[in-house]
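[#protein-structures] MJ: dropping FACT complex subunit here for a structure pass
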Amino acid sequence: MADNRNVNNVTVRASTSSPFTINIENFSKRIKLLYSHWKQFKNDLWGGSEVFSIATPPHSEDLRYLKSSALNMWLVGYEFPDTIMVFMKKQIHFLCSQKKVSLLQSVKKPAEDALGVEVIMHVKGRNDNGSALMDDIFEAVGAESRLDGYDNPIFGHIARETPEGIFLEVWEEKLKNANYQLTDVTNGFSDLFAVKDSLEITNVKKAAYLTSSVLKYFVVPKLEQIIDEEKTVTHSSLTDDTEKVITEPARIKVKLKADNVDICYPPIFQSGGQFDLKPSATSNDDYLFYDNTAVIICAIGSRYSNYCSNVARTYLINANSLQSKAYEVLLKAHIAAIAALKPGNKAVDVYKAVVTVVKNEGPEFAPHLTKSAGTGIGLEFRESSLSLNGKNDKILKTGMIFNVSLGFQNLQIETNNPKTQKFSLLLADTVVIGETTSEVVTSTCSKAVTDVNYSFNDDEEEPQKTKSKPRAADTLPSKATLRSVNHEVSKEELRRQHQAALAQRKNEETARRLAGGGSEGSNRGPLKPSGELIAYKNVNDLPLPRDFMIQVDQKHEAILLPIYGKMVPFHIATVKSVSSQQDTSRTCYIRVIFNVPGAPFAQSDPNLQKFHDSIYVKEVSFHSKDPRHISEVVQAIKTLRRQVASRESEKAERATLVTQEKLQVAGAKFKPIRLSDLWIRPVFGGRGRKLSGTLEAHANGFRYATSRHDERVDIMFGNLKHAFFQPAEKEMITLLHFHLHNHIMVGNKKTKDVQFYVEVMDVVQTIGGGKRSAYDPDEIEEEQRERDRKNKISLDFQNFVNRVNDLWGQSQFKSFDLEFDQPLRELGFHGVPHKSSAFIVPTSTCLVELIELPFVVITLGEIEIVNLERVGLGQKNFDMTIVFKDFKRDVMRIDSIPTSSLDGIKEWLDTTDIKYYESRLNLNWRQILKTITDNPEQFIEDGGWEFLNLEASDSDSDNSQESDQGYVPSDVQSDSVSEEEDDDSESLVESEEGEEDDSDEESEEDKGKTWEELEREASNADKEKGNESDSEEDRKRRKMKAFGKSRPPARRPRGGGGSLPKKSRFR
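AK: finished. structure tokens for FACT complex subunit:
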């Protein structure tokens, strides 16, 4: 038993200076429970005893679990070595040293108040064997028995505990020589300890948290590092290192006092064919074995305030089919055992559930199944009376805690290595029985097959391994050779073969999807029109005119204009623009232009459509001698118009939002997981100073809030599509990024991407601009501070991510399939996804760029194909076009990718089973997708996506008649051109509206000629010069040169349908 004993945060050591206190409330409750249980089950469990004694042996450095020590800690909170306790109906006797007596004096009054029992202390001297004091106790026992009419009382004791030391040996001898009927009361104590109260359950949960944290955050990373770096480490050294971590919880950021924790047993590590699944197993001095088909068993147990917990996991290295099947069967049996732990069931039912699963799923493993599914656990590591075997009929009750331990012993496989011919499997968890279901308190340690089965590629032994996850080493650019010296297939050839298989599968998938109802996705319908504009419901609402001049009514969002002696109201939404100017005579003019039917950009206004036959005021002008008043009115109208437009825009955005569930804020039982001092993107609106906030994980979602009450964002777990954690490596920020299924509002912005970040380094400018020495102590210290800050931020983020991942691992979130993904920087490449260059990085499920705005998050599962464009000799960069399965969705272009990244990107795409094509020119994807959706049957008949196959096109070009005709330019422009034109047209609309707000032109008609008029004038001018054909060709060439080479569709044969050609021709 360990040296330190603690209950209620009080440390107990053998020192006179240490403060000792007994929890009186706890003692009173449990002494009542002890006497009540003794009275109720006196004949069944307590052997009919009229009196019983507990003799606790001296302190020992060995780990051991005794009923006498357990009663000490359960009743008074401490273990009292060399102490005898005798419990009678009306008296309790303590025989121990003076120091222990002084501590036990505090229980006299509580015992008398609770039960009316007198507590009598007997102080044993240092060199006294206590014989005389024992006689006094026996005399008291005899006196009470005679009063009850018994000459020879039944005396209970723990018969299985052998007395240690002279003191207890004398007691044992006197007890046997006394005229008593001795009986064993072990079963009574076992049943008493079986059901735990809330304090005991809390202690077990804390111990379980420590145990699972040690396994997850120390043992598993340690094993992965050993295997990855191919180190030679012994089992015993792993045991020593793990034991140090258990006794020092701060090393893994577990906030439990080291004085309160201890090990249940030395951690067990087994591998190399020698396995022992008994609880008494130990780690040997052999080296950890992790070759192919190796099995590693880890078992860890820790205690908190003397309450035990246990967890065991088996890790498989390149497992074969037999090992994988055996583990899957064991996992199903283990889950069935936990599910059978319900109040009212019998202990035997748990083992029967295990046997049923094994016989149904893998009957060949039944002879190797352990004889028990575990035991009860608490103050003792193994509560034998609660064994989950095939014979125990004990009824399970709420509050019982079990170590559910299950395994297969000595399974055999045929291998060349004797260390892998025999293997065993073991799984163990600590489980608390609740009111209706059981709770696995060590569930943070995953036991899923995908998390314990490690696959390491070894080209020498297994040249063909299943590709499960892209690795950096596999995607580095390499020299592509057709055949090596020993005629092995090159990596490029393997990639081509895999791509050919992908092409066939992709065309089949696309054909099925198009035949089943077109492309994926939903059509985006128009926004609902806003309501009817009403400034004043009746004449009485009009404000009283102060003066006969223009007024702005902020409350009713209207302007009142003096017209023919009356104040005429106009809703601010009817105003298109307002401007003012001053002439040479210092007379000021104000001009108000209204929205009217027929004007550009006014066709979508529903209010104009509703009253299209009415007569409208197009514009009004007023003059004044007061320029200050004119400028104030113009400014007030513009401000009101901007506020209303912003509100209506936000209202329209919110109208399209999907209703979210309500956030369930964490209560007292569940403390929210918190990460502080974060900034958010997109930022909240408003003109005030920006504030950092705190991100909290609650029961069903996240909440981010600043100190301002209106700056708050709730993100539900059910709305999360992807979650990313990107630590700062070559960037200035460490971030968490959430990509959502449905839009939410952040401030007044509608978004599907929400990001929380911290700047890891401050931007500092040296005054004077001079260079500082690399050996400057201040510079070195500053760099060290920056590194420390960066590491601390990364650690805080990592802890938050780990805890949230553990939360998402609970059963209620399994359907969401959530886990923080981390970008793989070694697979990243530079490109231009929008307007500026960025570093784009793949993850296991997405392609992302999370630093520059706007963000890029592309789900790999939504990609149909990828086309690599402008790929050819002499090109320094190329473009990537991503086509989505939803053909109504615009393609995603990433331009100007360095050619040096081409091989890496192709390898990554091939590894993730994404079909890619290569072309020498850019394609007009908007027209291509329109053609596919208009005639999907023809697209399928023509070979699907194979018209993009550059190699097939080149191989057929020699026999083509069109190949001699050369490349014929087309008016069809590239997708990038069309997108830029669309962007220009949209920005044109926005700029015209903005200019109209602040412009000083006289009328709308004087703003310039239209594009059509300019085009006609240019065409007429060309005709007059007589070189129309030349100018047409020159214009096409200039357009091709300005926007990039455009690859037109090949000519279609006359009479053909509206489908794409099977193969494109290139010269």
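MJ: nice. The first strand starts at residue 5 and ends at 7.
AK: one more thing. The chain has 23 helices and 41 strands.
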